[in-house]
Amino acid sequence: MTDGPSHWPGFYVLGSALRERRTSRGVSLRQLAAKLGFSPSALSGWETGERAIEPGQLGWILGYLQVEPAERQLLTHLHRQSERTSYIESLTSGTPSLQEVYEQHALRTFQWAPHVVPDLLQTAEYAHAVLGRVAPADDVDQEILTRQVRQLDRDPRHRHTVLLGAAAVNHELVPPEVQRAQLRHITALADLGLVKAGVVRENLGPAGPTAPFVVYQTAAKTFTVVLRHEHAAVYLSDLDTVRRYRSTFATLQKRTVDYGELVDAC
Q: What pTM was computed for the model?
């Protein structure tokens, strides 16, 4: 096994973003390479994540494709982190997170959500119930709209496996009728084949994983673990750490009840 770009997930995510921006503007790989003076093979390697791209080369591509400043800043930040197996991102209100890039370009998501239904799976009513205690209604509406846009931006091949804790499906701030509607919403997504859900009903005990985590898998089957805190997100992609979190997820999955059974019981 080499230590080259092909084993750093950030390169694949960045490459997917570049390819998506190029194709969305109707520019072929050869056209872009010719315009910027790159060889088509080099550009192809950058887009597939098999080759590292220099900062200047990335800037020329983003500039030519007229990528919006906020996204340009985000992709440039991702590029700076791509050769590291772990890094911490400070989260600032109103500033997009690198996790949004992973959500958009990863093909598989494996998520343990012990306390609350994940953002992108929440109904508007569930989000208002959970966020309404800490944010004005207008801010919550804007957050919901932002989430909807992020959902639409996801690769259509993306599949999401989520394991919910008992607290997530019986949230203390969510009225029963809203909770039932939320369960039905996830069931509808499951019927479309977009989501696979289970509920961990057992008491995990003091040794059980109570903190949420997400594992993102790229098309090239590289993995990144994301641990999100109030003011920071931690990204981990070294093989041993990924293996431990994937093992934990598999163990939790064995301790779930079928999500459909829970909905039928409501």
A: 0.83
